[in-house]
Amino acid sequence: MKVGFIGAGKVGFSLGKYLADNNQKVIGYYSEFKEDAKEASKFTNSAYYTDVELLVKDSEIVFITVPDGVIEKVWSSIKHFSLSGKIICHTSGALSSEVFSDISKRGGFGFSIHPLFAVSDKYSSYKELSKSYFTVEGSEEKINFVKQWLESFGNNVCVISKENKVKYHASAAIASNLVVGLISLSEQLLLECGFDKDSADTALAPIIRGNVEHCLNDGCSAALTGPIERNDTTTVLKHLKTLSGNSKEIYKAVSRQVLDVAKNKNKDRDYSEMEDILK
After folding, report:
1. Domain 168-277 CATH (choose: 1.10.3470, 1.25.40, 1.10.1040, 1.10.357)
2. pLDDT tens for residues 89-123?
């Protein structure tokens, strides 16, 4: 497939390189930020386009890899081009293909294609995309084609509905961004206890990795340990007493979710006192 990119940020870099490494014809990049497009084209051994209409003309699939707030603007700027038979995609986790208004009337097919993966570096993240689960939402006429195209690279692919896009993205944010926030809070508390940054990271690494691996291999219920699971209200009260402000609210909010897991694991245990503490 001939694939062109409008936008040359981290996702555009990474996805373009990944597709090129999987024997797809990445034709090139167009961007308002010319130096980024030049750099991305060099990185993927493709062309730098100064004319977005020519890029669309030369492409069978066009990826719009720009920030969410700009996708509709980009679509408005290209929707009057000749789009017959072309697949137009964005990579937003939260937006659906509905952003491509009237695309079917123009003979094109609109999709949201999202790798469930935190793209953190434009030069190296492509190496890990082979492990990423992709979600696809869009035109029913071409949905199976797009799904099979992505699967041909060895990726797992899930088709989701437009109604579930935001909930799906919330799930991704919890597993990625919010976990970063919790680790940051844990690190902060250790620094307050006298650890230096390196020691805090070294101390936390085994418990973070161990918990994640246990959750993924054995399930969250089996992985859960600690004072909430064993219904140790005394320790939880001590935790709450030593915390304050935002840290305390985060502890309580996440602990209520942990309590749900504990209840599911120990159905015969009375957690009513713990529930009252965490309100």
Report:
1. 1.10.1040
2. 999 999 999 999 999 999 999 999 999 998 989 99
